[in-house]
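Second attempt. The first submission of Glu/Leu/Phe/Val dehydrogenase had a stray character pasted in from the spreadsheet, which I only caught after the job came back as garbage. Lesson logged: always re-copy from the clean sequence file. Corrected sequence (186 aa) follows.
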Amino acid sequence: DEWGATVVAVSDVNGAIYDPDGLDTDDVQDHDERPGMVSGYDAPESLSNDDLLELDVDVLIPAAVGNVLTADNANEVDARMVVEGANGPTTTAADAVFEERGIHVLPDILANAGGVTVSYFEWLQDINRRQWSLDRVHEELESEMLKAWDAVRREVDDRGVTWRDAAYVVALERVTEAHEARGVWP
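This time the job returned cleanly.
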């Protein structure tokens, strides 16, 4: 909402809600903390989680479990981009279908890397016996995520590969650089 996007559907383990005019995400989030969760929210339309994956949207963000986008439903996905908020939500077969259909997939190793990055910050604070402010954590996270985004974006542009392949290229280059700098022992 605050970045200009209109969120038209959200889901939980019990089902999905949909409003083509947009959901009040703050209200939905508040409701999610009460009994009945998202699927009990008073929205114009209730959907199954499978139906949610087939909505006509600009961006689809599967953010709960793996293997929800498969060869069986990839041709029914009606999004311009998939952003993998969950670990491994897209099977290899679905990935191939999306590439063929021109649907960009922002891979999990980039899209949901914030959590593991903040875990790294916690480790840094611990070994250095320092405590960062929440603002510093946010600043550092934004900086790291933007650097990763820029590196992957360059590979997409320079090599003409998928976002997933570009992310793997960046990851492998970083591992190679670390190995060459440090040798076998970390």
